[in-house]
Amino acid sequence: MPTIRITALTDPERSPSAHRLAWLASDGDGTPVGSAFLRLFTAPGVLPRHRERGLALWMKAAAILHARRRHPQVGGLLTDTADTNPYTRNVNDALGYAPTHATYEYQLDL
Question: Which ranges constitute the DSSP H helices of 22-103?
């Protein structure tokens, strides 16, 4: 079976705070082979009054377990986290994620 990479994306039709997540599946040469979108019904991350209880860690761990069970052929997961977000970076570190690349976002006002 060919190697498939799952990449987290930003929904281009919404702002980052619009409670939407998107993923792109691509094969070994980078050709897109599938996509998935998820709309969240709560604020992204953990609301301030519920922080420091480990919820982000538990939610992300649950997502990893779900991916492992549903897609055992996938060899790894990629998550995007801003350098300015130490909370999520700490969660990623605790789960064994390692930095792999830098992403730059550009905007063109029309």
Answer: 55-70, 86-94
